Description:
The protein is of the alpha/beta class and 434 residues long. The protein is built from 17 helices and 11 strands. The strands form 2 sheets. Strands 7-6-5-8-9-11-10 form a 7-stranded mixed sheet. A 4-stranded mixed sheet has the order 2-1-3-4.
Amino acid sequence: MADAASRLKGLLEQLLGTPVPVRVRAWDGSLAGPPGAPVLVVRNRRALRRLLWKPGELGLARAWVAGDLDVEGDLYAALDALAGLIWDRGEDARTLGQALREPEVRAAVRGLFRLAGPGLPPAPPREEARRRGHLHTRRTDRRAISHHYDVGNDFYEIVLGPSMVYSCAYWETPEGGDLETAQRDKLELVARKLALRPGQRLLDVGCGWGSMAIHAAREHGVSVVGITLSQEQAAYARKRVADEGLTDRVEIRVQDYRDVRDGPFDAISSIGMAEHVGAERYLAYAQDLYALLRPGGRLLNHQIARRPRRDESSYHVDEFIDAYVFPDGELAPLGTTVTQLERAGFEVRDVESIREHYGLTLRQWVANLEADWPRAMRLAGPGRARVWRLYMAASALAFEQNNIGVNQVLAVRTPDGPGDSGSSGMPLRARMWK
């Protein structure tokens, strides 16, 4: 079909009611759109069938993961240009049903179906998670964690670098710098906020590949129990602990936080784990951690937050993230998290937003992935590598544009027995860890 790009661009603009902000390169080699704009590559008609049979973000995600859609040039520029059409249409955007009542929209949809050609869309890419059972049971949480983290330790080494820290780093300047230094500074920031001292016990919930546990034991002399639901992470972390000569001070377990019974601990770190807990279980999560702390013990909860909506009942999880990245993950506004921690009995003593730091971190991870792209595709498969590249690049923009944030919340289990003074044990001048 001659000049498919012009036809596709025109039909999309008729459907969306706004100019398409990128150039479109179609399967016939034709090109249409504003000169100098990022190029969206539609490799085949199958991409259109995916979008028409599953309109919205999930259809786009399936086409991207399968390789039916691609971007030429700067991925960040393309995502930024497309954000207004995909993610930023707002709470008042018209629904598909409303749009289809408009004659010009119905005509555009018919034209797109003709352009897509006959046939049903192919099955979703195999990288797509299938939801089974109730949310946030021990079994479904293990399955969700395995989907995300058991991709292969060699793949994560490419993305994360030697630190193997899969959470926001802590940078000195807006220009970034050395990722390993920034990750070490983040681990040290957490340790200082928790006031770790030799002889104490630390519980690291969602310990990942063991970086926080090793740092706390090596640099601060504490005994650490690190727990994860990922078998691959645990095996990797145990080897790192042994290589550091810390097996007498660090124990790595494959264990759900709900099953930890050997408290009390002097401190608990939960870094990038609480996003997996879910809104319905969050209060119970906070209560479980509260019960595992000794009176006077501290919790450092490092967690991504979304912006609150005018109507919270209308909030839906991100379809791409839920299907391909973090199955069953849920983000909550910062105020909701603080409220739940307080309801569980904690006294919240400090909240630090480090949103800009995550944008810098994600850009470093994307650069690492792109620098070793052929090997990453061999290790994780092309579809999975494409998932991670899109998710991390889009997330970097989301943090930079203040669509989501990340916060460290320091909370204390204040003494609550008979005759206790209620002292938090915190210094009078806040943020002495600086």
